[in-house]
Amino acid sequence: MSRVQTPAGIQGRVVAVSIAAALGGFLFGFDTAVINGAVDALAGDVSGFDLGVGLKGFAVSSALIGCAVGAWFAGPIANRYGRIPVMVAAAVLFFLSAVGSGLAFGVIDLIVWRVVGGLGVGAASVIAPAYIAEVSPAHIRGRLGSLQQLAIVTGIFVALLSDALLAGIAGEAAAPLWGLTAWRWMFIAEAIPAVVYGVMSLRLPESPRYLVARGEIERASEVLSTVTGTVDVKAKIAEITGTINTERSESLRDLRGHRFGLKPVVWVGILLSVFQQFVGINVIFYYSTTLWQSVGFGEAQALVITVITSVTNIAVTIVAILLVDRVGRRPMLMVGSIGMAVSLGLMSLAFSFGELDAQGAVTLPDPWATVALICANAFVVFFGATWGPLVWVLLGEMFPNSIRAGALAVAAAAQWAANFFISTTFPAFAEIGLTFAYGFYAFFALLSFFFVYFKVAETKGKELEEMSDDARVERRRRAPRA
Q: How far apart are CA 134 and CA 401, in angstroms?
């Protein structure tokens, strides 16, 4: 006879399981941000790292190539071998990338190791939200799904903080430290959370929906009763089996549909991912030092403000976790869209008053410098409380059981491609003018409001087995469950 657990015990267990799975998001954030503290030191390193402007930019963005590839293949691999093996594989990739990047002897193998880390990031970006959605009870699934974004922004913060600490101990990132150069330890530091993630992944239960699809009913029943707190396990198994049998076993071919080659719900996922990046959030994080210097701050102050911005992002993500299962996904996304559009629009207006200094850099006169500063932080708040975490929540729960991992893989790959586009085009946009750049992001923020209003279904309180028919998307859109 299985031991009976209290609801608090069940909830504690599913929260612990979700936090462990979200460690992939922490490494996701850490891996993408750690390069920021090392890249300038790399450019001046005398040991084979003579980076020109183009190669320096590619060294920063090369991980995104691996991200897209890792995201694309993670779904099919997860369906064949399970969610847990993909997490373990991602942890191994993170570890290899950390050590390899830290011990790299030239720019070529550094880029190779960054791409290896990107493969882990891409896999983690797919498997964590899918797994969390599949083990979470419907009434707290939004909060648990938001842990992915909380882990990502925490990983970014810890990477920035560890970079600053290591550079501070050594005197600068290019200085010797403990037998190596400080920037090398910045990369190697990622090996510690990678090992923790791998060990914890091995202790996680497999997704009950994957187990049912593989015919392992006894194991699925145990996970449903002891982790998700399902009372009528037999009925739940039958419900999961019904959706799987109806919709057939999953492959990328199952994503095909009549609207430009894909099912409508897959397009919704892709466009959610694209909009999340096209509002320009990574411009704030990747190029924030330049932005803050343009409004009058020195380099040291700009770096401190960047860290403060990352802390703000963590704080508002926590707010999103508290609200998502009460307010719902759609209302929060629409409020975020309007807030981002207004703040980005005002930033675009502020930079139209920019002036060039003697070095050719853009500076802002008062009061527009203050306007740009306030609006940039407001943009981070609106994004961090809505589009940052909620897109991951929706991607984890909006797809039918039969195509969840594959559709999420395609959507995540689109997200990384959009990230690459926005990150690499900002310098060119800035050459045209920062008014144009932030106006471009403001336009897509406004467009995202109408996209959510007309195309995104509310998933608050719904079981994953209800996400099973594209024809019902419009009927679900306006029918949130209390």
A: 9
Please provide the DSSP assignment of 126-195 as one string.
Answer: HHHHHHHHHHS-GGGHHHHHHHHHHHHHHHHHHHHHHHHHHHHHHSSTTSEETTEEHHHHHHHTTHHHHH
- Summarize pLDDT for 231-275 with one digit per residue, the tens: 667 777 776 666 655 444 444 455 555 555 667 788 888 899 999
Which amino acid belongs to residue 128?
A
Which secondary-structure segment (H or E) carries 355? strand 355-356
Q: Band of the pLDDT at 210, cuts 50, 70, 90?
A: confident
Sequence-ordered list of residues with C-beta below 8 angstroms from that of 210, at least 6 positions apart, any chain: 78, 79, 82, 83, 134
Higher-scoring residue by pLDDT: 288, 155? 155
- Helix extents (H) in 328-433: 329-351, 368-382, 388-397, 404-432
For residue 63, the number of C-alpha atoms closer than 13 Å in the C-beta half-sphere is 27
| Amino acid letter for position 304 | V
Question: Which pair of structure tokens corresponds to residue 183?
Answer: 């920037």
Q: Does domain 248-482 have CATH number 1.20.1250.20?
A: yes
> CATH classification of 1-204, choosing from 1.10.645.10, 3.40.190.10, 1.20.1250.20, 1.20.140.10?
1.20.1250.20
pTM (predicted TM-score): 0.68
CB 375 within 8 A of CB 309: no
Tens of pLDDT, residue by residue over 77-122, are 877 787 888 888 888 998 998 888 888 777 777 778 888 888 888 8
Q: Alpha-carbon Rg of the chain, whole angstroms?
A: 22
Buried b vs exposed e over 267-280: b needs ≥16 C-beta within 10 Å? bbbbbbbbbbbbbb
Burial class (CB in 10 A: 0-12, 13-18, 19+), 450: exposed
All CATH 1.20.1250.20 domain ranges of the chain, comma separated, are 1-204, 248-482
Q: At 83, list the tokens.
A: 């969610």
For 464: left if phi > 0, alpha if psi spans -120 to 50, otherwise beta; the answer is alpha
Mean pLDDT of the chain: 75
Are 49 and 106 spatial neighbours (Cβ–Cβ below 8 Å)? yes
